[in-house]
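Lab notes, practical 5.
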Amino acid sequence: MELLKNGLGKPAVQRIASALAPQLPNFNQELFVTQATSGLDGLELKQRVSHLITTLHDFLPENFVEAAKVLKQLPDSLDKGDPDDALRGFAAWPLIDYAAVYGLEHPKTALPLLKKLTAMFSAEFAIRPFLLTHPAYSESQLLKWTQDKNEHVRRLASEGSRPRLPWGM
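Output from the prediction step:
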């Protein structure tokens, strides 16, 4: 049985790098992969997510609004991976959670980003810090999302607001 943390191994990092390269002028794929995989094998799942978020921050625009523009393009460019790999969606997890770490002070940019990215890998963990920090605005968005035509967006509204799920806040 494959360990969940292995969904965020070197193949996932390479897929992330390949998706970012066309979006970022002067992006050094090789350096990104080297930095992102450095020490990765010794980390557990959530530690890997955090490590990759930190690495992303080193390569994305420092301004979150600009970084969000890059991330918003990724659903169309991220290689979905091997269809037989049950963990292939994990590559999107750090891309999504990046918004919760670096976009918390920009909810009007971050929440639409999470709505866009959630189809790649559920953004339910990333939405929770916004519910705590910006409850009225976040709840108003989630309420709208319950009527969205996209099942992934409706799931984000439902699951993201449940505090007793794994890694809940």
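Observations recorded by the TA: The chain has one domain: 4-160. DSSP finds ten helices and no strands in the chain.
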